[in-house]
Amino acid sequence: MSAKTFPLTKPELEELTRSYPTPFYLYDEGAIRQNAERIIRAFSRFPAFKKYFAVKALPNPFILKILAREGFGADCSSYPELILADMAGMKGEDVMFTSNETPLREYEAARDLGVIINLDDFTHIDFIEKHIGIPEIISCRYNPGPLKEGNAIIGKPEEAKYGFTREQLFRGFCLLRDRGAKRFALHTMVASNELNPEYHIETARLLFELAAAIKKETGISLEFVNLGGGVGIPYRPEQEALDYEYLAGGIQRAYEEIVVPAGLDPLGIRTEWGRVVTGPYGWLVARAIHRKSIYREYIGLDASMADLMRPALYGAYHHITVAGKEGLPPTETYDVVGGLCENNDKFAIQRKLPKMDPGDLVIIHDAGAHGRAMGFNYNGKLRCGELLLRPDKSVVMIRRAERLDDYLATLDTAALGNFPVS
Ligand SMILES: *Cc1c(COP(=O)(O)O)cnc(C)c1O
Fold this sequence. Notes:
By secondary structure, this protein is α/β, with parallel strands linked by helices. It has two domains: 29-278, Alpha-Beta Barrel (TIM Barrel); 280-408, Lyase, Ornithine Decarboxylase, Chain A, domain 1 (Beta Barrel). It has helices spanning 10-19, 29-43, 61-69, 79-87, 104-113, 123-131, 166-178, 197-218, 244-259, 275-278, 310-314, 404-408, 413-417, and strands at 24-28, 49-54, 73-76, 95-98, 116-119, 137-142, 183-188, 224-226, 268-271, 282-293, 297-301, 320-322, 332-337, 346-353, 361-364, 385-389, 395-399. Strands 1, 10, 11, 12, 13, 14, 15, 16 and 17 form a nine-stranded mixed beta sheet that branches. An eight-stranded parallel barrel has the order 2-3-4-5-6-7-8-9, surrounded by five helices. α8 (197-218) runs parallel beside α9. The longest helix has 22 residues, at 197-218. The N and C termini lie far apart (66 Å). Bound molecules: pyridoxal-5'-phosphate. Pyridoxal-5'-phosphate is lined by residues 54, 56-57, 75, 98, 189, 192-193, 228-231, 272-275, 369. Pyridoxal-5'-phosphate binds next to loops.
């Protein structure tokens, strides 16, 4: 069981909405920091552990600054994400650049910032040599193909567009060494939102065995392996959170069985978790503005899938509570919906909830990762802002809500006035 809590009482939340009208995201800094510390404690058993936060999960530099303070680096996949990490003080080898189909200008930016480049394909070795030069430290992304089962969100590795095959990896590391690289790393990312620790332990085992085979066949000793992201969170109250100590213990056993005998100790262990770092500590807060009764009962919110796309995109479950009605029995069945002209704009379908009324404050849980980040402007929807609850209970706005002028900012309205249409 995972308790679905919210850090403010209903009167506190009502008070907050007087300064910041709904909808908005709220993140709990204290809870994020405590979680970050639990992760670091569990993995401190490894001689060279380092964690990168997957910026795409919550691309806000205030959050990144907090995580940097906790000792996290950043995993970036684009130029703007590199800039966000840089703004938060995450620099050089504290940043990993894992992109795919990477444009040249993004490789140039990665080189200029001195971050660790993680190549997605064998042909990129020639590409970077020609355009930016082979860096001293380089990582390659492995796609295990049929050797590893996939999971629901990310799909089967053999159908995934990412990474090198095993054979390409051996050739690739040799080529990189021959062309001047001095330090090498191996990366994979094969799961998303996976709660089973055995799956992640098996991924570590796979990388350790590969690192041992690379050493045996090429003589190259890897500096670190990056286990990627993909650790799940219990979106449903009946699910259990993954136990970091158990996971780290399982990875440690694989390390002792494979890495130590291969003569690779100390091998760096790195992760680039996103969801599990911030996901449970963020909420989308919206207000019920309409109740509609047709063939089903609907509760209409002032937020839409433009603010939180996961339910519509993946059929994902997000727990919903109503401020001040947490203890009431779930006597009603509602579709809780947003205002997009898309019938899949539903935060919950046929959900059992207490009786709701327009004006109720609706709390959508586990929205601290891949939430606001996936927002969009379809239907002219303006994305909501982000608030941070600090450990002293003060609230800071860390991103304002979009306004009409943001939406229009990419249009040249002067040119429109002079645009001849006959
Ligand atoms: C998405 C992604 C992550 C983070 O995944 P989570 O599920 O949020 O942990 C890490 N690395 C890469 C390469 C990714 O694409």
